[in-house]
Amino acid sequence: AKVLADSLMAEGFNLLSGGTDNHLMLLDLRSMHITGKQLEKQLDEVYITVNKNAIPNDPESPFVTSGLRLGTPAMTSRGFKEDDVKKTVEAIALVIDNPEDEAAMEKARAIVKELTDKYPLHKNFGKDL
Fold first, then answer.
1. HSE-CB for 96 with a 13 A CA cutoff
2. What's the pLDDT tens digit per position in 12-21?
3. Backbone angles phi, psi at 93, to 5 degrees
4. Max CA-CA distance within the chain?
5. Sign of dihedral through CA atoms 11, 27, 79, 41?
6. Residue 124 — very low, low, confident or very high, per pLDDT cuts 50/70/90?
7. What does the pLDDT read at residue 17?
8. Distance (Å) of CA 41 to CA 37, 64, 65, 127
9. Deepest of 10, 21, 76, 80, by most Cβ within 10 A of its Cβ?
10. Which residues of 54-68 are buried (b: 16+ CB within 10 A; e: fewer)?
C-alpha cells in the first residue's frame, strides 16, 4: 500500500491523507479536472477496477464525485510485488494523461494483461472444468 501511495503521489495524484497507513487510499481529482465517475469508467476500459468516491466537502454530487478510492487487496491477493504496483500506477497515469489516445489506452491494457498473466487468479483456473 505504501508503494501504491508513494507511486501515485510521484505521478502527481493528490492523496487526501498524504499517504496511507492501510490498504485503502482516496484520491482528490479536482486538480486533474476529471471526476471520479469519468476516471472509474476510463480505468474500467483498461481492466483496472476502482471506485468513484466522494471527498470531504465534495462539490460534485454523490453520483459523480471528485474522488477515487483505490485499494491493494486485489493486487496482494494475486501476489503483486512492489515493481508490479508501480507498473499498475504507470497504467493509471497513462489513462489519466491520455484519455482520448487509443494507443495509450492499448499500452495501459497491455501492462494490465502482462501483470494478470504473470499472476493468474489460480494456476488451474479454467482447466478440467
1. 24
2. 999 988 877 7
3. -65, -40
4. 52
5. negative
6. low
7. 80
8. 6, 11, 13, 31
9. 80
10. bbeebebeeeebbbb
Grid cell at residue 1: 500500500
Alpha helices in 21-123 (DSSP H): 36-44, 73-78, 82-97, 102-118
Read off the C-alpha cell for 84: 508490479
55: which 3 cell numbers? 471527498
Spatial CA neighbour of 90 closest among 10, 1, 2:
10
Contact 54, 62 (CB under 8 A): yes
How far apart are alpha carbons 128 and 97 in whole angstroms?
42
Tens digits of per-residue pLDDT, 63-72? 999 999 998 9
